[in-house]
Amino acid sequence: MRIGIMTSGGDGPGLNAVIRGAVRKGVRVHGAEFTGIRDGWRGLLEDELFDLPTTAVRGISGRGGTILGTSRTHPYSGGGPARMREVMAARGLDAVIAIGGEGTLAGAARLAEEEGLPVVGVPKTIDNDLGGTDYTFGFDTAAAIATESIDRLRTTAESHHRCMVVEVMGRHVGWIALHAGMAAGAHAVLIPEFPVSTEKICEWVRSARDRGRAPIVVVAEGFVPEDRDEAVAVHGIGADGRPRLGGIADEIAPLIEERTGVETRSAVLGHLQRGGSPTAYDRVLSTRLGMAASDLAVEGAWGQMASLHGTDIVRVRMADAVDRLKRVPLSRWEEMQVLLG
């Protein structure tokens, strides 16, 4: 059996560990052969494939990024499923493992269930917004990087008696902000699921200041203040047609300074959260998901993806995982309230 493997959409820590896990188990246990697909769906549509033996995945689980490259090419562009069938037949591919987030897995589910293509998936997003899995790989690393960054910003804020507004990624969910904010002891955490007023933010800042603290505000890039209708996207629209979220910290910081009198600075962490080596947790999770994906491919479980449930790796329908965003629940938000201010 020959299995193609691709990484598609935004990159994230742990992609290389998934590739290694899939190839090692596929070759050693199932006797499969692997083909690397360059730059996601683009490589499959444009026939940019190469052999991927076990020697090619040596020592890569600790490396960030992806050795396969990635892109946001839509699977129904450039000839779509018909072209994919043509390339797969010519290259002798019996299955494809698609590693990606919401967009990638939605496309993979459609290809498997509507077009009959032999595709299985692995969920990837630092935002942790995919249903059907308790956590996605890359999230732990992103939250850890954000936490360390906040710790560093706190020391300079304390030196100058300032308030720091730290913007983290997450798109339309607040998982990174919630976890990093709790881990770093932030005084205010702002997430898209639960809008709060500017006055409430300032109340938290004043409370921290009055106790002699340098107030730390963590805000998710998709946070929408009560007086706005949509998230801030100062960088416009991306090539995939989605708003390039970001800039909310720069809007909030001057408002806090004006209303509280506390000198305030903003810091946008941006792509720092997606780069570099994955944490040990993400390396282990990624490797296990990759190994499970090889099993799915060999068993012909098309339209399924490897998923984390508790501490177990299970399988779920990709279509079920992408039908809605996994948002921060009210219980987690209420749990956070005692720590704010």
**Largest beta-sheet characterization:** 5 strands, mixed
Q: What is the mean pLDDT?
A: 95
Number of helices: 11
CATH architectural name of the largest domain: 3-Layer(aba) Sandwich
CATH class of the largest domain: Alpha Beta
**Count the strands?**
11
In helices, the fraction of residues equals 25-40%
Low-confidence stretches: none
Label the overall shape.
elongated
**In sequence order, what are the helices and strands, one letter per element?**
EHEHEHEHEHEHEHEHEHEEHH
Strand content: 15-25%
Task: Kindly report the oligomeric state of this protein.
Answer: single chain
Q: Determine the CATH topology of the largest domain.
A: Rossmann fold
Rg from C-alpha positions? 21 Å
Query: How far apart are the first and last residues' alpha carbons, in Å?
Result: 58 Å
User: How are strands sequenced across the largest beta sheet?
Assistant: 3-2-1-4-5
Structural class: alpha/beta
Number of domains: 2
What does this structure look like?
This protein is an alpha/beta fold. The chain has 2 domains: 2-125 and 278-321, 3-Layer(aba) Sandwich (Rossmann fold); 139-275, Phosphofructokinase domain (Rossmann fold, 3-Layer(aba) Sandwich). Helix content is 39%, strand content 16%. Helix 1 packs across helix 9 and helix 7 crosses helix 8 (248-260). The mean pLDDT is 95. Homodimer or homotetramer. Its EC number is 2.7.1.11. Belongs to the phosphofructokinase type A (PFKA) family. Mixed-substrate PFK group III subfamily. InterPro entries: ATP_PFK, ATP_PFK_prok-type, Phosphofructokinase_CS, Phosphofructokinase_dom, Phosphofructokinase_III, PKF_sf.
